[in-house]
Write a structure and sequence with these properties.
218 residues, mainly alpha, 75% helix
């Protein structure tokens, strides 16, 4: 598959923030005005994290690899994504694509491609766990992350390693996985609290799921 167009786009825009910032700012403003703050933050975080793996300095580690400090915040994307999905339901896939498109303006194609594949794997695992298990949503959030975090972290860092040699190291991989698990734990606790409130009120067992997935009105 030919991704030379992405490299050309990156070459044109990476040195011209005056072109990129107004575009991204207008999209963020539009989402905020339509009362979608979590969605706006989610779209903004995807290009930011991808950009950081290409440009933020790394720290040499004893294992010979290079630790990327921004790996610590990768789990925050998971938290924001779940709240964004509460706002816009399955339209979250379009927002993910928009975030990757913005990434192509500021980040080399290898990282953007690896990010897209990692997101796809995470979403497929998430779909499988949510479709084929009957446990409460709070449990399924953790199971989904446990299943997908090691694989999507490794794939993303493998692609990032092509741009920033050394980041495909145990220190960064483990940090990324732990960060995502912490993010999943936060989401699980929020959902678990909703499940307990729904149970106390005598609501159906899937009430928490409905709350998370139901788009909010404008």
């Amino acid at each position: 598959m030919d991704f030379s167009w992405a490299e050309k786009l990156y070459a044109i825009t990476s040195s011209k923030p005056e072109v990129i910032l107004p575009i991204v700012s207008l999209v963020m403003l539009a989402l905020l005005l339509t009362k979608r703050p979590a969605t706006a933050l989610y779209v903004a975080m995807i290009p930011f994290v991808n950009w950081s793996f290409a440009h933020v300095p790394t720290v040499p580690m004893p294992d010979g690899g290079e630790f990327q400090p921004l790996a610590i915040v990768t789990g925050l994307i998971l938290v924001v994504r779940d709240f964004a999905q509460r706002e816009i339901s399955h339209r979250i896939f379009f927002m993910m694509a928009l975030g990757l498109l913005f990434s192509s303006l500021t980040t080399p194609a290898a990282i953007v491609l690896a990010s897209g594949v990692a997101f796809l794997i995470s979403e497929l695992v998430d779909w499988a766990v949510f479709t084929f298990t009957k446990r409460p949503l709070s449990k399924r959030v953790l199971w989904s992350c446990l299943a997908s975090a090691p694989l999507d972290s490794a794939i993303f860092l493998y692609g990032a390693n092509m741009v920033t040699p050394g980041v495909f190291a145990w220190s960064t991989i483990i940090t990324s996985i732990v960060s995502k698990l912490v993010g999943a734990l936060i989401v699980a606790r929020v959902v678990g609290a909703r499940e307990r409130r729904a149970a106390a009120a005598g609501a159906p067992a899937n009430a928490a799921l409905d709350t998370m997935k139901q788009p909010q009105s404008s």
